[in-house]
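Kindly inspect the following:
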Amino acid sequence: MKNKYLISTICLLFTIATLNAQDEKPEKSAADLAKELANPNATLGQMLFPIDFIGYNGDINNASSQSASVISFQPSLPIPISEGLNLYVRPLIPMYISQPTITANGFEQKSGLGNISADVAIGKTWTSKWITLVGVFGSFRTASDEALRANYTTLGPEMMIAKLTSFGALGIIVSHAWSVGSGKDADPTSSAILPDDFWATSGPSADGISITAGQYFYTINLNKGWQITASPTYAYNHNATDGNKFTLPIGTGIQKVTRIGKLPVRFGAQYWYYVASPEAFGPQHQFRITIAPVVPLPW
């Protein structure tokens, strides 16, 4: 029932955004919108739908035959404070179509609502075309299936530094998350490695969670709204065992801004290859499709 309400809410937001966009006369070309969207501090609203397909590997028996698929929803509606200064409140809501979990009987696939995360941050564009962002990030134990639920609520600071260039933009986001509270009891027969948990194993540690993670990104503007782009996520799990601490993909992709009726939509595809991943069980390949309607801000 919870999943049905969530899906209905997302569909309603998408419909409202589409109707609002259709009420406004298009003023910018797809190419101009694409260049503006390359700015991570642009005052543009987006309804992001990343769709991830992940292939795994590891020392655990049958790890290399495991795969996952997840659809996420991340609305981004910046609140302008002054020229070049914006406030962001961005939830990320994952829905697992299939996710392998490790049990006493081997791997089992699970599906359902994932652990919702969110950040609150302020971004500033400087006259030098550097962009900085500082804020707070949190992840919450909201998964509908116990096997997918994080052991801890996590909270910590985040920051971003980026540069607008003649070809587009590039930058990096760094956050650090600590566990909040005592967490749930350990279950030695079941664990998972989840993208919304920075690939941290769900098995609780006596020391709690301490993870440095983030995202590096770049965008190269081409013609007619086309762009070369990538935004892989990385993580370092300080409390994991040796060989299972670092997760780092390299990736690239392409995207294009076009219009469906009067609604601008950004379509993209990226491929990530993990040059570092937990040895026991972790991601090896990831393919991401992104659908992001560009919507008017409601304020």
Observations:
- Helices lie at 2-22, 30-37.
- Confidence is low (pLDDT under 50) at residues 186-192, 196-204.
